[in-house]
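Fig. S4 source data, part A: sequence.
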Amino acid sequence: MARKRKSGFSMEAAKTLLRGANLRCTAARIAVVQTLADHQTPLSPNEVADELSEFGFDKSTIYRSLTELDESGIVARLDLGDAVRRFELLPSGSEGRSEHPHFMCIDCGKVMCLSGFHIELVPDNPKQKPPGKLEEVLIKGHCDACL
């Protein structure tokens, strides 16, 4: 049963993405990719399963699909320190990692992508060098709804 996509991410776009990663275009993988594309925030496997419950996919199928999509570089798995794994669709060419910071509300636990924001380590002392290269940034605070 087709339903209106929030993102406009078509079934053909999902199939192209899967084929590009040498994955079979199963109904579950297509549905998971489209669901992640519909949201501007990382989702847990339970949230994806809830979104897709009307289609009869069980949670193990959803989790297996998310794991395969993560391993293929189509999605990124985020471990934000709260024991909930979340997944987000990666933009093409992102080399299997999220390239934007995330904001987590310390009151309600909501996680939001900070797309369009760039964070870098800038030392106070120009002679000091950063200890390494940033791969993932998580900012914690209070979201607008909880203020």
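Fig. S4 source data, part B ends here. The chain has four helices and five strands.
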